[in-house]
Amino acid sequence: MSRRKLLRGVGVTAALAALPVGTAVGQTAKSKYDDEDGNGIPDEGEVVTGTYKSVYAYDASGDWYWDLGDGRVQGTVGGVSELDQETLTVCDYKVQYRGTFENDPFLDSGWIRNNINCKGYDDNGNYNFLIVHKTDKRYTGNRPAVWGDWEYFVDVESKLGNKLVRPQNPPGQN
């Protein structure tokens, strides 16, 4: 699997896995929401707006580090400083979302916007995508699926533009 495909997969996983409401203080700006059962998750029908930051870093040897932005850290090393600095690539994520959690820890409806900026050994790209749920008026049912009833609405990569609306082969190239 290429690093770019892995990067995109991490972005989608970040959107899904790191969206639980209980993110670190200072990382989330969210609506006030009802939580009658006290489980820390918005009750059914409560619309939540939030944002958080995450960092994914890797090196050419295959080691990686992922700070999900909510206190959870994953990877083969304990920190970015433990990665090979000569082949290091660091990707900073800013994730924004709005929707309902329906009293479970994952966003059940709404939209998710990821802005990813990478710098380093094998990637100096910017990636932006907007994922919408079937309840969002922008949902078409004809775009690439992310998971379940969610699809990409915008998928922009630096030097390529919006990959959902551009020609498969740039003009003059076959």
How would you characterize the overall build of this protein?
The chain has one helix at residues 3-17, and strands at residues 47-58, 64-67, 73-75, 89-100, 109-120, 126-133, 145-147, 150-157, 161-162. The chain has one domain (3-28, 40-162). Strands 1, 2, 3, 4, 5, 6, 7, 8 and 9 form a nine-stranded antiparallel sheet that branches. The protein is mainly beta and 174 residues long. The protein is flat and about 50 Å long.
Counting structural domains, the number is 1
Radius of gyration, in angstroms, nearest whole number: 17 Å
Identify the overall geometry. flat
Number of separate helices: 1
- Please indicate the percent range of residues in DSSP E strands (runs of 2 or more): 35-45%
Largest sheet: 9 strands, antiparallel
Descriptive key words:
174 residues, mainly beta, 1 helix, 9 strands, flat
What is shown here, in short?
The chain has one domain (3-28, 40-162).
What is the element layout, followed by pairings?
Layout: H1 3-17, E1 47-58, E2 64-67, E3 73-75, E4 89-100, E5 109-120, E6 126-133, E7 145-147, E8 150-157, E9 161-162
Antiparallel strand pairs: 1-2, 1-4, 2-3, 4-5, 5-6, 6-8, 7-8, 8-9
